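Page 47, continued from p. 46.
Same chain as before, 314 aa.
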Amino acid sequence: MGWRDLLQQDEVITVPWTGGRTVRRGPRTFQVQGDLPPEHGFHEFTVSGGRRATWKGPSPLAADQWFDERAPSIRGYLLGDRLAPDDVAVVPDLARLIDQTELVHLVEPGLDRYARIAASRADDGSLIYVRQEFPLGPEDQVRAAFLDRKPSVDHVPGVPPALDLLFRLESWQRDEVARRRAELERLRLQRDEEERQAQIREQFRRQDRRQLARRSFEDAARAALAVTGAELLDQRAAFRRGEHVVQFRFRGRRFECVADDDLRIVDSGICLVDHQTGEKGDTRFTLESLPGVISEAMDQGVLVVFRHVGADDD
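Result:
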């Protein structure tokens, strides 16, 4: 058998795919040809010596099976899909709270708030969820403090810096949602005037879709998301009258937001605060424009998801 024969041999590899047309296994990098997986997860690819890969299908392996026990683990606490590692040093600066966390891919659905986890680095450098770890003790008290809207967890003994950081971050996010709802009420009063000043073409497009929303919010939400290539997965009435919880798939990931009857965003489920000015941006967007904002944040590596939505079994 010569070297040409070796180059033509195919093999199947399993990797944690988190988007894009490049997959890496060990020191080798492959370019994916053809279809991409529909969602992030562990997938099998057929690869050749020519550095090309073809998606074969989902892998039955779980993260703790795929990662070797010798692989270094990063332990810490989880908020949505952001990890605060054990060695973090809390800096009480809004602009740096998010910077002290790192994106974790393939998070297991259904984890409790402030779950303690272990993650490992994939060959491409991305951080992959491996398993849930045993709690250290103060987690229940910190969860209770959040639900009771306590200003801090100074009264809870033995709180690790990583857990303190996530309590601060989520408390801030909840306060921002409350402020955005108040801002939305103010914007409602300005809506008619703003729409009259919009361009005629845009005005007609928005008006038609919002008239559809009054007949069928689901149909209108599906049409609005389709503008940017997002796919509606589910929608249901929210706790507040006139608001809807919307789940959608975009660029291989699932997201959840809250929108009102006019398709205007109440809670985007992601961080949309200008850390330079402190200005909150959720209510500036609609179901048509939100996926575009998510796409830009993905490309810049600054996406922070507060509403984690796991994959189902379909």
